[in-house]
Write a structure and sequence with these properties.
By secondary structure, the chain is mainly α. Helices cover about 60% and strands about 0% of the residues. It is built from six helices and no strands.
């Protein structure tokens, strides 16, 4: 069993659908990152706040996760959780303000699914010693504009 939370727990916390446990550092930080992306205007988001949360995730992973071979993931976990939180907020907003069938909405949710898959592979690596760098193979996600506008 992995010490890392599952992707569904992270996304639920990011979207404010579950209370983050006080003992689960990663899920708590994910909830805080989600709150920043959901409730703070783009110009008001503090890079320092995000940095503190990402660093807390990385420090927890460095001290609590035993990676096979003593190595670690190609991308810091804090950066992955931050990108998941940003993408989750963007995908949810896009679904509300754009046509649900639009290509942009589809790309947002597809990118979130790709990030969830990357998280799952990292969790497997922490548990079983397997790791595949799906982030590099999947390519970049949709552009994250400061404001989502509805498409015609």
């Amino acid at each position: 069993m992995s010490i890392l939370p599952g992707w569904h727990d992270l996304i639920a916390a990011m979207q404010g659908r579950t209370a983050a446990s006080d003992t689960d550092v990663i899920t708590w930080c994910a909830a805080e990152l989600g709150l920043l992306y959901r409730c703070t205007p783009p110009g008001g988001r503090s890079g320092a706040q995000r940095g503190v949360l990402m660093t807390a995730i990385d420090m927890f992973a460095a001290t609590q996760v035993r990676w096979p071979g003593g190595g670690g993931p190609a991308q810091p976990l804090g950066a992955l959780v931050d990108e998941m939180a940003a993408t989750s907020a963007l995908a949810t907003t896009a679904l509300r303000v754009c046509k649900p069938s639009s290509e942009f909405v589809h790309r947002c949710w597809l990118h979130l699914a790709t990030l969830a898959e990357a998280w799952t592979l990292l969790s497997l690596d922490a548990t079983t010693g397997r790791y595949e760098d799906s982030l590099a193979a999947s390519g970049p996600g949709p552009a994250r504009p400061d404001a989502v506008t509805s498409d015609p």
